[in-house]
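JOB MANIFEST
job_type = single_chain_structure
chain_count = 1
residues = 640
[input]
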Amino acid sequence: MWGGQSAESHGYSLPEVHGTIATSHAQTWRRLFAFAGPAYLVSVGYMDPGNWATDLEAGARFGYRLLWVLVVSNAIALLLQTLSARLGIVAGRDLAQACRDEYPRPISYILWVLSEIAIVACDLAEVLGAAIGLNLLFHLPLLIGVLVTAADTLLILWFTHVGIRMVEAFVLVLIATIAGCFAFEIFLSRPDAGALFAGLVPRIDSSTLYIAVGIFGATVMPHNLYLHSALVQTRRLGSTAQEKRIACRYNLADSALALNGALFVNAAILVMSAAVFFTRHIVVTEIQQAHQLLAPLLGTTAASVLFGAALLCSGQSSTLTGTMAGQIVMEGFLRFRMQPWLRRAVTRFLAITPAALTIYFAGETGSYRLLILSQVILSLQLPFAVIPLVHLTSDRRRMGEFANGTWLKLGSWFCAAFILVLNVWLLWNQAADWSAQTGRYRLLFIACAVIVGIVFCTLLGYITFWPHTRRAAPPAEPVAVTLEESAAPVWTPRSYSTILVPLDHSESDRDAVANALSLAKLHHARMVLLHVEEGVTSQLFGSQSSTAEIAEGQQYLAALVESLNDQNVDVEVLVRHGKSPAKEIAAAVAEVQPDVVVMASHGHRGIKDLIFGTTINAVRHRIKAPLLIVSGGHKNDRSL
């Protein structure tokens, strides 16, 4: 996504930014600043519209009663994010890559599908949050707002090119703005301290279970575990045990600061919701009501604008991190790399569809319920990310001296078991409710529920016990293998007699011709300069076309031929007419049968690629001749 290192895979996570930020500073504060960032990108996911919805619902329905859920979920998130960062620092693998290494291929594919579901569920929250923000800011209907969010693919594509540090800075400013606003609001409202402390006492029942699970899903987001293990590798960490230990220590500080900041924002929303709605017995049916939290501080109009802007920015920031997580998950599990804009478009389409249908058929109240449901789905995916993470970070073969100790193992497994128990409890209650409403189809429903339960338990048991089974297996008997000695291969040098050079009358032509000229002189080869006329006249009249532009092109080619002839190079000119340069170049290759094709790239990226197209990619899939691609767009060496 970002410029920097080569995007070719070296087994790195986010290869474009891997190891791009130096951390070997002498001053402690500079080193702390260098390590700061990954946890803030992760923490913005804890302040996305899904969190706002669950916090708002918890405070409005149950007052301060579920405040303890926020505190416990934040502590669990801090522990798991620390393990995720440690995996990336010590093993040099993100969680998706490590799962692919650890589990059989079918299981890793299932884990990939589950993580993709979590990413789509998270993006669903961002879609709805952005639509609500647009509604508050510009009074757009929610359905129109949801459709507008499809266009943010281009915005995110542009934003990812500004650099990892700029992205981190943007997220930090957003967090500080939201936190400052709610901090001042809490100061003015002076909530009941006794009720606050009472809310820290753990208590849960069937009535609060659904919202509690949603809060856990919104806070301990499964895809953030994949994300954090990759983001920490954007720093130059070093290879010694001492350097890794220092990196782990600084990332722990970064995570603690960022996640506690996220806890403050979420707790502030819950507390203010309890103070504004619960104490007045107001039923919350849509997240738009939440801007009333800020009305006493800023006035109704200003509160609506600020809340809408914060919600919109929160959704976009979470969209950015969700795109990164999607890239990490797909490349880690499948070793398949997709263009970020295309990856973003697919995920957004899958999120927009249920959002648009829900708003169309159920209205704004339905969108609020869907927002909370998306966070419950995240919680249901958690065990399938948490259990592998605990296994992997406890493996001494992978982690060495950094493997989880006894107390850390106990704490990690307790967190995994706690989340799993809540999920199973919720599923059991939900299945019982649905069973009671199925009437004559009750037996069919129960049969389907049993099958789903067996599949769920089987998969869960497999990822839990597979590492122990594999490690306990006795080592295979060594097998003696005798290899026949063979001589080193002899490579026959390639010679070129014809070199085809497609030109487009831009600065890039000089790079293509200069490189082709070097090969032509070395091999005494013939150069064929190809130009494709793609204007409307050329498309209609072909070689009979005659315009000022074509005449200028002919003069341009004649000057090139004269220059090359002066250097004793045999040159021919080939002009083709058509609307598709890639297709015409491929046809010219078939006609000329060159030994090599030399093309120059334009040097544009991102949105320009979407606007201008990528001829080289289209050409290389159409031809069988060797293709030499040289970097274009340089303005030095203006003479041949």
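[summary]
Residues 340-381 form the longest helix (42 residues).
Strands lie at 498-503, 526-533, 571-577, 596-600, 627-630.
exit_status = 0
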